[in-house]
């Protein structure tokens, strides 16, 4: 019997995030022959995004658009998701492993009495055809592979920048369905949203991250890093050491208690490489470390290491990359 697989679309600044397409890829991997893939768009003023989502390789786009859904509220978003699923529990619900996805996924798991695998970085099949979900453990020091048993609803969150994005096809357009939002009796209201952005490019999805640690020594010390990131088309990140010292906002923090990033290139400037920092960046494709201490632990995970003063090295890199 055909079953529904929902992909909860991640939105940022009124646009679909890249992780949405990666979540669609996960949904396509989970899907069997006659399963129905549905993208679910929840928010306010989002109907214009439906056409874009309809080309993302799903069969159906469900839009639930209401002013009350402008700011994320767990109960409201869960009730919208349940409405999108209809009467029969979905086969799977896929989320981005983002602030919203991480919050909503366990609620969805509880709602459908489901199994959950979070922070998935790879998916493949075992020799007996079972779907294996790979996820990191112990701050990225180990990986485990999990399978769902029985026929429970599968709740999955996918780490941004790890799975390939689903291929979009402008020739194929999915059916778009708008559903009415039945506001539940909410126990919380959002009074104010204070946005602290991490720059023009979304840090969790950036292909290149230039990160600063306590070695940058001041907020002005971040300027050369910002300039290098600008030249490379990347985003700026930071260690908690730099955030705690007040050199930058906590929105930039990468690590165990910050953001997890998996860019193509991670440039660590004046960062010692504490295990809690590595938890947020060690899966980056290529790691470049700039540190004046040749014994700094960051060099153990770096693919390329530059022993030197970041205030000399970073401007040189910027100058050279500007020529390309
Ligand atoms: P430091 O360890 O002080 O390193 C600074 C580095 O800069 C040194 O290696 C030094 O040689 C180098 N340096 C100095 N000057 C220069 C220069 N001019 N040029 C080049 N190099 C220079 N940390 C995180 O980052 N993210 C987290 O999410 C996180 N979560 C944590 C959670 C818990 C529960 C705990 C206990 C800690 C957590 N930490 C986290 C903190 C972590 O343990 C480290 O204290 C922190 O990462 C250190 O930051 P740092 O590398 O910038 O500073």
From TrEMBL:
Superkingdom field: Bacteria
Keyword Transport: yes
Electron transfer flavoprotein alpha/beta-subunit N-terminal domain residues: 5-198
Gene3D superfamilies, sorted: HUPs, TPP-binding domain
Protein's recorded name: Electron transfer flavoprotein subunit alpha/FixB family protein
InterPro entries (UniProt xref): DHS-like_NAD/FAD-binding_dom, ETF_a/b_N, ETF_a/FixB, ETF_alpha_N, ETF_asu_C, ETF_asu_C_CS, Rossmann-like_a/b/a_fold
Native source species: Paenibacillus gansuensis
Similarity remark: Belongs to the ETF alpha-subunit/FixB family.
Keyword list, A-Z: Electron transport, FAD, Flavoprotein, Transport
Pfam family of the protein (one): ETF_alpha
